[in-house]
């Protein structure tokens, strides 16, 4: 069930409930009004009959007789009169006014009150009788029916217009969400080129702007990962080509020599020239020894030894000791306050490379008198490596080299960040790297090669 349907349905339910409550109130009011009108009509009719009877009983009165009094109620909207003799037989009946637009029978039964008839005794020339007045609510109910019909027609029109207006407003208000849904579907199948036009309420405008900013960042990350993948593929191809050259140029000739020396040994054994066998065997041993050394060299290039295999803290101490021995004029300080057990090996490698590159840059270009290195745990489960010097700093026009760019790529690939800040008055430089250290942190991986 869509959000639009639920909103419109909820508002329609409220309108229908309001219409039903209004109908109940209108029915109650109509019943009360009809009852009041009928009671008043009966009271007036009774008074009229009694006044007429009193006037007719006067000595010199010439008022109408009972038969004529009955027909005084002909055409009455609210009353029906019946003249009864002393035996209860009907002598005459009035003809009430018929409603021009009768109300439905169910409404008459629902609204018409049940009122007792009014019985007025009469004396018709010494013959006793009585006049019975009964309420006839048909005309009053027909009048109420006309009012209710017009009122409900107006309410129905209002509800219909309200529903149409609500549907239009809700559809227009939710259109940006539909655009967002369509854009997300495009993102799932076609990449990060989808953009939303900021429109609608301020909340939806902020949502669209946030979506566009997210797509821009994801697009940049995708392009960056693609470049990294292309570089990785290029490096792999270069390594394959280099291995092929080494195997062909270095291993191939020595394998040929081994084959030649082995054939010489076989020939000497057949011909009985056993004195030549030791020389050929020694040549084979030298060839194999050379190939073993070259294979170890190739394996070393394929898997270079990591400086942090001995631990991050010892590796950093060795690095600082290396530079302290070569730059005795610079005061190096090292502070390590982090638990290595909670760090991945790859994270240790990145931290070491950050410190190595930063210290090297400071010594080469900064002309510092002091270099401070600290590695400590951050407040959000990350490792914070800070390298600060008091050298000449980084000029505003300086272009960052490949070293810092490579560090930034390393950190970004593992969800970290790099910050470079020049000290006061342009003196000194501080490099701060933040990197997730927990084993659960996952690095971004390049897409698989097609």
Keywords:
450 residues; alpha+beta; four-stranded antiparallel beta sheet; disordered C terminus
Biggest sheet strand order reads 5-6-7-9-8
Radius of gyration, whole Å? 54 Å
Distinct helical segment count? 9
For the record, give the distance between the C-alpha atoms at the N and C termini, rounded to a whole number: 41 Å
Number of strand elements: 9
- How do the helices and strands follow one another from N- to C-terminus? HHEEHEEHHHHEHEEHEE
Q: Could you describe the largest sheet, including whether it forms a barrel? A: 5 strands, mixed
**Poorly predicted runs:** 439-450
> Mean pLDDT, nearest integer?
81
The class by helix and strand makeup works out as alpha+beta
Note down, in words, how this protein is organized.
The protein is an alpha+beta fold and 450 residues long. It has three domains: 159 residues, no CATH class; 95 residues; 129 residues, Histidine kinase-like ATPase, C-terminal domain (Heat Shock Protein 90, 2-Layer Sandwich), CATH 3.30.565.10. It contains nine helices and nine strands. A five-stranded mixed sheet has the order 5-6-7-9-8, covered by helices on one side. It has a four-stranded antiparallel sheet with strand order 2-1-4-3. The longest helix has 70 residues. It starts with a helix and ends in a 14-residue tail after the last strand. The C terminus is likely disordered.
């Amino acid at each position: 069930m869509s959000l639009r349907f639920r909103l419109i349905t909820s508002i329609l339910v409220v309108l229908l409930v309001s219409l039903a409550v209004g109908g109940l109130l209108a029915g109650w009011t109509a019943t009360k009004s009809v009852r009041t009108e009928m009671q008043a009509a009966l009271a007036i009719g009774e008074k009229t009959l009694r006044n007429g009877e009193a006037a007719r009983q006067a000595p010199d009165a010439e008022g109408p007789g009972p038969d004529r009094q009955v027909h005084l109620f002909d055409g009455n909207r609210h009353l029906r009169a019946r003249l009864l003799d002393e035996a209860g037989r009907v002598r005459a009946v009035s003809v009430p006014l018929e409603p021009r637009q009768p109300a439905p029978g169910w409404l008459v039964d629902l609204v018409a009150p049940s009122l007792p008839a009014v019985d007025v005794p009469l004396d018709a020339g010494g013959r006793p009788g009585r006049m019975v007045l009964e309420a006839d609510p048909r005309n009053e109910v027909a009048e109420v029916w006309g009012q209710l019909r017009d009122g409900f027609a107006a309410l129905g029109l209002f509800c219909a217009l309200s529903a149409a207006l609500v549907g239009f407003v809700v559809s227009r208000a939710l259109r940006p969400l539909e655009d967002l849904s369509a854009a997300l579907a495009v993102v799932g199948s076609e990449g990060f080129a989808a953009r939303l036009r900021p429109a609608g309420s301020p909340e939806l405008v902020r949502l669209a702007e946030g979506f566009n900013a997210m797509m821009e960042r994801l697009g940049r990350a995708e392009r960056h990962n693609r470049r990294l993948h292309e570089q990785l593929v290029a490096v792999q191809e270069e390594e394959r080509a280099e291995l092929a050259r080494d195997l062909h140029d270095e291993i191939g000739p020595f394998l040929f020599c081994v084959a030649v020396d082995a054939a010489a040994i076989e020939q000497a054994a057949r011909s009985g020239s056993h004195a030549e066998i030791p020389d050929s065997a020694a040549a084979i041993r030298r060839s194999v020894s050379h190939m073993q050394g070259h294979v170890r060299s190739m394996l070393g290039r394929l898997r270079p030894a990591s400086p942090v295999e001995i631990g991050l803290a010892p590796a950093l101490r060795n690095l600082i000791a290396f530079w302290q021995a070569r730059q005795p004029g610079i005061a190096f300080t090292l502070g390590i306050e982090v638990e290595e057990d909670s760090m991945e090996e790859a994270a240790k490698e990145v931290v070491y490379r950050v410190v190595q590159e930063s210290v090297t840059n400071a010594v080469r270009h900064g002309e510092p008198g002091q270099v401070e290195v600290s590695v400590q745990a951050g407040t959000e489960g990350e490792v914070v490596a800070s390298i600060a010097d008091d050298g000449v700093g980084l000029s505003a026009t300086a272009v960052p080299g490949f070293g810092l760019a490579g560090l930034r790529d390393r950190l970004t690939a593992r969800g970290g960040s790099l910050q470079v800040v020049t000290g006061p008055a342009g003196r000194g430089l501080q490099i701060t790297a933040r990197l997730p250290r927990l084993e659960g942190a996952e690095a971004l991986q390049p897409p698989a090669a097609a």
